Amino acid sequence: MSEEIKLGWxxxxxxxxxxxxxxxxxxxxxxxxxALHAYEIERFGPASKPKVRFAVHPIPGRDDLSIPxxxxxxxxxxxxxxNGEAESxxxxxxxxxxxxxxxxxxxxxxxxxxxxxxxxxxxQALTEAVTVVPxxxxxxxxxxxxxxHSTRVRKMAPNRALRVAVLSREANYSTARLVAEGEERxxxxxxxxxTRCYMAINALAPDVYYDGKRLPRYDAVIxxxxxxxxxxxxxxxxxxxxIGTYCINGSAGITQSRDKLCAHQLMARHxxxxxxxxxxxxxxxxxxxxxxxxxxxxxxxxxxxxQGKGVVLAExxxxxxxxxxxxxxxxxxxxxQDFVKEAAGEDIRCxxxxxxVVAAMKRTGAEGDFRSNLHRGGSAQVVRISKAExxxxxxxxxxxxxxxxxxxxxxxxxxxxxxxxxxxxGLEGIEKASGKNIAGLLYDHIETHVRPQPVRRRKTD
Length: 461
What we know:
Blueprint: E1 5-8, E2 10-15, E3 20-27, E4 34-37, E5 39-44, E6 51-56, E7 65-72, E8 75-80, E9 86-98, E10 101-110, E11 119-121, E12 130-133, H1 152-156, E13 163-167, H2 173-184, E14 188-192, E15 197-200, E16 207-210, E17 213-214, E18 220-223, H3 230-243, E19 246-247, H4 251-258, H5 260-269, E20 277-281, H6 286-293, E21 298-302, E22 311-314, H7 317-329, E23 333-338, E24 346-353, E25 356-364, E26 379-382, H8 387-399, E27 404-412, E28 415-422, H9 428-434, H10 438-450, E29 455-456
Parallel strand pairs: 1-12, 3-11, 4-10, 13-14, 13-18, 18-19
Antiparallel strand pairs: 2-3, 4-11, 5-6, 6-7, 7-29, 8-9, 9-10, 15-16, 16-17, 20-23, 21-22, 21-23, 24-25, 24-27, 25-26, 27-28
Helix pairs in contact: 3-4
């Protein structure tokens, strides 16, 4: 900043890096350090590169309007306030804009609620090119608080660092990619073992605890709930929902998609194409059950089957009777489905993120295996899907309210048939087959829905 700039004792300023387009600041040459009103101040991130998150009431007296912010911590200092009390404050560096001029300044974070100006400019922020006229004010163009009531505020919001939790018990490819991609974007991503969480369930302070400590507030949670812990895992997700955390997939959607009977009933209700299906709990009328689906060959699968386990192809009616009798002997609940011959052992995995199919791959089973699961030795290659297939995948994910879903479907003579909707789809096969950064697309969705915007709370009397 080379040209001279004149400031009065009060000026309109903006802090664009923090998403604060208009603030009234007091210019005080008697104060060494600049200060910004902040509350709910919380440190997060690694000790080597700590960050701070906080909220700002940009308009004095308007506690119902709040802007969430975050920044890197550059220092922590003891500051003597105007009443003579010492306070330890986090220090951040950000750009200030006054009129057409912009320059970096250091700012301490403190609660200035009740003061007429929610920002104070100390002499450290005033460069040699700044002249202060103590008897005047608003020497620079005036701004307006009306900007906070405009939809432009969200568009002007900076790419602030987010705190994200990945609920996962396994250190697999998908978890590693979600952590790496988030950290590359400057976010703080923590892997949380779902089974080590426990919850305080009450109306006033519902919290989630982990290894003896209360978990911090996360901007977003990415659930990777395994089939073996569906009930407990969804309870943890439900607790985060209660707190108000943005969950990529909600507890209800995970539960419904994991329950194969419930999933098929929901898809049938919403007229989503799927193979003819019948459900039974150890029926005596085996022939009647088979007749509901059609003729052999048939697929018989346990309700709790995952990754192709508990799924049997019965090529003849006699074989189907034998399998059903065996499941009946185990007192197991199962589905019987029509076998789509024209699929020829292949299915399509559509990866849906935020209501859009972002990638699709064709999975082919290993030689001699009708199941196309990659975990069972199947292979995958990128595939171009039809409009009908795309619409079926999107609709299936929407029925369960899933923002991230792997929708498996078959190509049949009667159009696409949805087999399953997976709420914790693996990323390895689809990323390698499509060459797309699926984890990055997921973070694009998270950032769009979680990044700061004006939060207006209802005023109470």
